[in-house]
Design goal:
135 residues; alpha+beta; five-stranded antiparallel β-sheet; globular
Length: 135
Amino acid sequence: MRGILLLVTGSMLASCANVPPLPERSASKQREYEQLLAGKVAGPPLSCLPTYRQNDMVVIDERTIAFRDGSRRVYVNNMQGGCPNLGGAYTLVTKSYGSAELCRGDIGQVVDLQSHFAVGSCVFGDFIPYTKTGA
């Protein structure tokens, strides 16, 4: 019995060690992220994006996506577990089922724009609203 417990524990630890780390954000993407949030204050996390407009999505890196809502508000989503291959020749495609909202737990597919094949998928986290302060 003890041997089985050690075997299970060892295999669990080994499976955790094989997960590659997410790539670091480039300096230009960090500047873009900072510009999106400049002069804005974070609000409480939201489960769903109230107004989802696909054309206003900005990919910061494989784990961070921002949705612009005019010039006064930006919603930032930190993808659960990251979103490998996102950016460049790949784009994020989402589907709504019964609602026009994009919500925490929804799955997006990363699609190659040339071949139209899915090359990955990812899960949305909470949406953090950043709103411009003052007048």
